[in-house]
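Usage

Read records sequentially. Each one opens with the input sequence:
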Amino acid sequence: MILDARNIRIEDYDYPLPDERIAKFPLAQRDSSQLLVYKNGAIGCHVFSDLPSQLPDDVMLVFNNTRVIQARMHFRKATGAVIEIFCLEPLAPADYALSLQSTHSCRWLCLIGNAKKWKEGALQLVFDHAGREVVMSATRGVQHGDGFEVDFSWNDDSITFGELLETLGELPIPPYLNRATEESDKTTYQTVYSKIEGSVAAPTAGLHFTPTVLDAVRAKGIPTHELTLHVGAGTFKPVKSDTIDMHEMHTEYISVSRALIEQLCYSPRRVVAVGTTSVRTLESLYYIALSLYRNPQASPEELRVEQWAPYADNPELSRAEAMQLLLDYLDRTGADRLVSATRIIIVPGYRFHIVDGIVTNFHQPRSTLLLLVSAFVAGDWQAIYNYALAHDFRFLSYGDSSLLWRVDR
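and closes with the structure output:
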């Protein structure tokens, strides 16, 4: 199977997407967006506020509660050149929460715009905070692929790095919107249930949910659960190779509570993941469990999910067996959350172990997210996308959404 998966041609996952079909801004009312429902080859059109009535009683919903940070900053050199620094992931401290709480210095892996004009020396930003002048410095370090280590420091220990980003940073909306960030994006590009800061892109399927829709879901007796995956800039990385085997997936950091793992272990409810980030997190749990099955004493580093791990010759575990291995690991380590990292790629040929339904938006042509959708609906993605194009659905991050049920063939 791995050879077939690696040899998938990305040109087979292309479709015409006119610029006018890309939603540049969200609708004024989040839950008035269109909802495509796909099940067993049948396609229907609804309004997102109808989602509770479209969900059967025997499911649970799982959301990604990550919150987008204002990760893009602009520095100006003495020559006048503008240098953009886009924070991707923390390096020292390596924990998102600890880094955002840092009060004097921290180091991040960053993308640098106009990097050729910043060879050496520190960049500085001077700004006012609560009536005090604060100086923030950035020093460029070692390069890692497309990114660079950047050391940040500032002269006021009463300010956290998270507060600095809130003051100086800009929300990094997707590049395909082809417009500047506006003040409204600070609200509309966050889910109503976002809590844990760390993402540089929103889990956009969740943007359609309102408190009213969530209340209606719960009133129906459908439990809702949360996990955390911090979305990286790699989510926008196009597939440039002819076949998918040459595409390198980015690392994403996940955190899943013991309570959710217990529900996945003991509850007979089917799992509906809100967003592809939730899908990747939930399916990664299965492969973390496989690592523990092979080596119960595996170190946290050995539990990271590598890109092609799902396509190896793996033993078969049930959902309950896999989740019990994770619970045993938490018992052994005394932890109440499973924290790990994943580079999982889900392409046609993948076998789903946890997720039965997905709420997701309409994704870019030739993208890994479109490959994930194709895997989930057993290759029927073209019928879904042709329907959406023919019925005036809006595409990408601020566009409409779909409720897809898994097809096993």
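Summary fields computed downstream for this record:
- The chain has two domains: 2-68+187-405, 72-170.
- The domain at 2-68+187-405 is CATH 3.40.1780.10 (QueA-like).
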